[in-house]
Amino acid sequence: MASIFSKIVSGEIPCHRVWEDAHHLAFLDIRPIQVGHTLVIPKRETSYLFDLSGEEYHSLWSAVRTVESKIRSAIPCQRIVLSVVGWEVAHVHVHLVPTSSIGDFPFPGPGDGGSESLEEVAALIAAANRG
Predict the structure, then answer these.
(1) pLDDT at site 8
(2) Which of these, 13, 32, 98, 102, could form a disulfide with 36 (CB 3.0-4.6 Å)?
(3) What letter would DSSP give residue 116?
(4) In Å, how far from its chain's centre is CA 119?
(5) Under a CB-based contact definition with an 8 Å cutoff, are residues 84 and 49 in contact?
């Protein structure tokens, strides 16, 4: 089944487009964190960021950079905060949120990350062979 973003790409669902090229689309988030909150997506539906090919991955970040520059030129802000969560919609998307302070973006505070020690977790990740 096509994601809501694939339906936006195909024109089945309207959006407020701010930029696109042959492989990417950028449009305003319908539930913005701040004015100018924009999503950048690859037009080809892929659920997980790291399932993109290397070329697609780098191309996406180039598109994100292009859109970031446009947002910063149009919306008064000091920085654009990026977020790639990956659970809300099963279609890769990068959130670009204009901000002027850390309070402009809901950022989680310190958490309990689990009962493992930092040394144990670092060793576990460092020893992993995947990839």
Answers:
(1) 97
(2) 98
(3) S
(4) 30
(5) yes
